[in-house]
């Protein structure tokens, strides 16, 4: 690609490219810090220089515009460098969920047509197991903290730091079409093969702007602004850590990357680096809230957005009791992912805590530029009256245009010009979305629908319950009946029975919180609730086990 020559009077057609997100921070905060565990700290200026070296190094390996670079890595400064360098070269960043099964890893790498793999040394055994089945990979770069590379049969081309050291600090990131694909990753869903979702530069830039506006500009709680200190707790392979690494860089905030998620290291970083802003799935906040160490430390400067699954009220309260400022956001892999967030409106800011909590655990109001509607199965829009439920459908500039090379599945995703989420929701008069279930998880008993999330939310408010999941189990008479699988807090084990909890739910029903037919038939106690590869409750596994 040669340099474009402009004629007098010809305007620059500004393309929305990821490289443009670096313009402001390099002026405003070149000396701002980026931290990796307790191992490394450097500045935005250093990151910028390393992004150029990374692109030069990858180009030397043969990476060109349109090639796909697959990354197996923990959340690190190196991953952040890839978030910029790979798409800025015009290549596609494939963020690998290293928790996938070997079959899924083979399928996704061949399907994405990965050309080059960047892999943390810890994951080399994973790659070894699938190596002989990979059809397109040509080069392998190993990422290490200390240059130790274990014995492996994989032909390694170079170590990451060596590649950067040897590479030119100059790289001319050219302009290209903003609709160029920048990323791809796979969502495993529940059944069938993983589905690829992909996003363009334009989409990721607009998504970053939308996040910066929605999370920072309104007079609300938990704002994300330039003086925050950010640490992701949603892996960077999962929906680009909600795109926040790009937004954080645009804002020039201090960033802390925790590497492998180890509770002690996380707490050390939160306290030591004075982290003020994170995001995670409920499972992670549950892990922290139940850790004895969390009670001994001050978490009152920490704002956490919880998304990826419903946040039960009991868990929200437990986090707030530790001083954490929490609120919910909603989205999915297909949506880039930010769609709605439980921002409080200005007139709600002086409400009492209980009333605020009612709002903070909703999916919330739309992000900037996002349109939300409810649709019935006939494709008709439904009212936003706080009662009528329907499938949540969306329009934003950052929705995957299709499932990658999968026209069949795309027909279910995109209908009538709206992206169909597969989530059941209602929207109230204030515009707040409340997810009531996945379409596939709704419990149907005697022809009536029960929200599994409602049952989990109520169960979470019983003092003995640590975690729970509501499922429908087959029933000859009613079709399905609700059963709740629960983990009890250690001090209540053996002291609370299924019947006690059923009585608690009866009381909730008497108070009008759930219909009578929604009272679970029984509670099953387990030591642990199975989770998916991205840390969400695995209802498929539970339905299988308790059918
Ligand atoms: P994923 O593609 O793995 O990110 O999963 C997306 C799904 O997670 C959505 O379709 C919802 O079912 C669920 N989800 C995400 N955020 C929320 C939320 N705030 N409340 C309830 N469910 C959520």
Structure description:
This protein is α/β, with parallel strands linked by helices and 547 residues long. It has a domain of 104 residues: 2-Layer Sandwich (GMP Synthetase, Chain A, domain 3), CATH 3.30.300.30. The chain contains 17 helices and 26 strands. The strands form six sheets. A seven-stranded mixed β-sheet has the order 7-6-5-3-4-8-9, sandwiched between helices. A five-stranded mixed β-sheet has the order 12-13-14-15-16. Strand 13, helix 12 and strand 14 form a beta-alpha-beta unit. Helix 2 packs across helix 3, helix 2 crosses helix 6 and helix 7 packs across helix 9. The mean pLDDT is 95. Bound molecules: adenosine monophosphate.
Count the DSSP helices: 17
- Tell me the helix content: 25-40%
Strand order of the largest sheet: 7-6-5-3-4-8-9
SS class: alpha/beta
- Can you summarize the main beta sheet? 7 strands, mixed
Distance between the termini: 60 Å
Please render the helix and strand layout as text.
Elements: H1 23-28, E1 33-36, E2 40-43, H2 44-61, E3 68-72, H3 77-88, E4 92-95, H4 102-112, E5 116-120, H5 124-130, E6 139-143, E7 158-159, H6 160-166, E8 181-187, E9 195-200, H7 201-216, E10 229-230, H8 239-242, H9 244-251, E11 254-257, H10 263-272, E12 277-280, H11 282-289, E13 303-306, H12 313-321, E14 325-331, E15 338-341, H13 353-360, E16 365-366, E17 371-375, E18 390-395, H14 407-413, E19 414-415, E20 418-427, E21 433-438, E22 443-445, E23 448-450, H15 452-459, E24 465-475, E25 479-488, H16 498-510, E26 522-525, H17 539-546
Parallel strand pairs: 1-11, 3-4, 3-5, 4-8, 5-6, 6-7, 10-11, 12-13, 13-14, 25-26
Antiparallel strand pairs: 1-2, 8-9, 14-15, 15-16, 17-18, 18-20, 19-20, 20-21, 22-23, 24-25
Helix pairs in contact: 2-3, 2-6, 7-9
The structure holds adenosine monophosphate.
Residues 187, 239, 307-310, 328, 330-333, 337, 363, 421-423, 435, 438, 534 line the site of adenosine monophosphate.
């Amino acid at each position: 690609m040669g340099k474009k020559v402009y004629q007098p009077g010809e305007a620059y057609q500004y393309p929305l490219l990821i490289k443009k997100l670096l313009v402001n921070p390099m002026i405003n905060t070149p000396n701002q810090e980026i931290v990796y565990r307790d191992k490394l700290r450097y500045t935005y200026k250093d990151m910028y220089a390393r992004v150029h070296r990374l692109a030069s190094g990858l180009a030397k390996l043969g990476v060109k515009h349109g090639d796909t670079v697959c990354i197996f890595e923990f959340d690190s400064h190196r991953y952040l460098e890839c978030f910029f360098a790979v798409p800025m070269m015009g290549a596609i960043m494939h963020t690998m969920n290293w928790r996938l099964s070997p079959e899924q890893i083979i399928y996704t790498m061949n399907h994405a047509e990965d050309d080059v793999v960047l892999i943390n040394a810890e994951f080399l055994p994973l790659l070894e197991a699938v190596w002989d089945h990979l059809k397109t990979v040509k080069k392998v770069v190993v990422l290490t903290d200390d240059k130790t590379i274990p014995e492996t049969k994989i032909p390694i081309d170079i170590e990451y730091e060596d590649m950067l050291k040897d590479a030119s600090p100059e790289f001319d990131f050219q302009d290209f079409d903003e609709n160029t694909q920048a990323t791809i990753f796979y969502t495993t869903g529940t059944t069938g093969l993983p589905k690829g979702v992909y996003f363009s530069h334009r989409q990721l830039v607009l998504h970053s702007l939308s996040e910066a506006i929605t999370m920072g500009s309104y007079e609300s709680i938990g704002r994300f602004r330039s003086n925050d200190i950010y640490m992701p707790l949603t892996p960077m392979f999962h929906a680009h850590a909600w795109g926040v690494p790009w937004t954080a860089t645009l804002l020039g905030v201090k960033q802390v990357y925790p590497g492998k998620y180890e509770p002690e290291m996380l707490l050390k970083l939160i306290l030591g680096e004075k982290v003020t802003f994170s995001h995670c799935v409920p499972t992670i906040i549950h892990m922290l809230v139940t850790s004895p160490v969390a009670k001994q430390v001050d978490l009152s400067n920490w704002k956490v957005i919880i998304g990826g699954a419903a946040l039960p009220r009991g868990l929200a309260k437990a986090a707030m009791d530790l001083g954490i400022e929490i609120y919910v956001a909603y989205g999915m892999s297909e949506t880039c992912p930010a769609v709605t967030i439980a921002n409080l409106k200005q007139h709600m800011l002086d409400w009492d805590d209980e009333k605020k909590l009612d709002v903070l655990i909703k999916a919330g109001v739309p992000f900037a530029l996002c349109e939300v509607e409810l649709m019935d199965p006939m494709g008709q829009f439904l009212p936003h009256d706080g009662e009528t439920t329907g499938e949540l459908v969306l329009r934003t500039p950052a929705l995957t245009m299709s499932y990658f090379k999968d026209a069949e599945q795309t027909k279910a995703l995109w209908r009538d010009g709206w992206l169909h989420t597969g989530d059941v929701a209602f929207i109230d008069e204030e515009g707040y979305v409340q997810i009531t279930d996945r379409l596939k998880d709704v419990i149907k008993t005697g022809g009536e629908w029960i929200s599994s999330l409602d049952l989990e939310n109520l169960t979470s408010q019983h003092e003995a319950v640590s975690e729970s999941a509501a499922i429908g189990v087959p029933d000859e008479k009613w079709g399905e009946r609700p059963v709740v699988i629960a983990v009890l807090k250690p001090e209540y084990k053996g002291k609370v029975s299924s019947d006690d909890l059923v009585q608690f739910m009866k009381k909730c029903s008497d108070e009008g919180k759930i219909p009578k037919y929604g009272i679970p038939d029984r509670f099953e106690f387990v030591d642990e609730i199975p989770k998916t590869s991205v840390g969400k409750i695995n209802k498929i596994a539970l339905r299988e086990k308790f059918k």
